[in-house]
Amino acid sequence: MSQHSIKLNDGREIPWLAFGTGTALYTKDAEDAVTAAIRKGFVHLDGAQMYKNEDSLGKAIATAGVPREKLFVTTKLAQLSQGQTVRESLLESLKRLQLDHVDLFLIHMPTWYEGRLKDIWKQFEALKEEGLAKSIGVSNFRIKDFQELGLEDGSVRFPPAVNQLEYHPYVYKASVPLIEYQRKHNIVTTSYGGLTPIFRKPGGPVDETLEDIRKRLEKDTGKTVTQGQVLGLWLRALGIPQITTTTKESRLQEYLDTLALPDLTPEEVEAINTNGSKLHYRAFVRVPIRYVDPSNAMPFFCRPLSWTINTPLGQSAAE
Prior knowledge:
Largest sheet: 8 strands, parallel
Site (Lowers pKa of active site Tyr): 76
Distance between the termini: 47 Å
Radius of gyration: 19 Å
Low-confidence stretches: 286-319
Active site: 51
CATH architecture: Alpha-Beta Barrel
Number of domains: 1
Pfam family, one: Aldo_ket_red
CATH class: Alpha Beta
Shape: globular
Keywords: NADP, Oxidoreductase
Protein name: Oxidoreductase
Strand content: 15-25%
CATH superfamily: NADP-dependent oxidoreductase domain
Order of helices and strands: EEEHEHEHEHEHEHEHHHEHHEE
């Protein structure tokens, strides 16, 4: 594994840091933002059919001046139309992206394909064999979704390489069973929403810990360090690549500079784990009618909604 990537279960490598075209860029023209990200040094570009901006992502890839083989491009399957195959859907994405393959193709939401996940996955496996998707994986999957997909019954030829989740200190405790399950099956977790404690839930129990670590890193390195970079280092310590986005070039550089910072100490990682476990908060989730097991409660959309759940672990959202 190189310094800036992590090996997947199919032998390929995924970069630690990705620029995403959801959230602030959802349904918007992403060409300028993606072009800026590529020129700053981002090589992993994370898109999705549901974001409705694959065409502008493709334009940026085509005009940024970086060879295709140096980029890692991800997209995700939206809901299929009546009678449409996964292959047909991916071919439409490739046309919009102006590419002949993607490096990673994900099932965006398991709930769209309940009762059909095994069949959908077989179609994904065929796309990997054909070379249209070099690696295949999932997003927002729970343990029961992996089971329905066939991960435990021997029917899977290529296990998912990745599960992309909302992941930050305030979902750390709730996600432990799922993360352990994925590690058992050699599935890499990738994180979106990793900066939630700073931008969507400031004033929470990890704030003081992040600031203490930030000051320590600044003292040791002589460089300016941000709390966002501390969260990036925390994800790196857990072996979790980060998907992030911004429309500000200064933030692009900040995220990239994280790659050159030293690792957190084991004690610092544990302090973030411990304090993050004091609050359960998801920024990218629909409110359920009743409380469900957090290990099987994943976000429904990779974009923020107008409200969020903010309840202590084990407490009903209605309480």
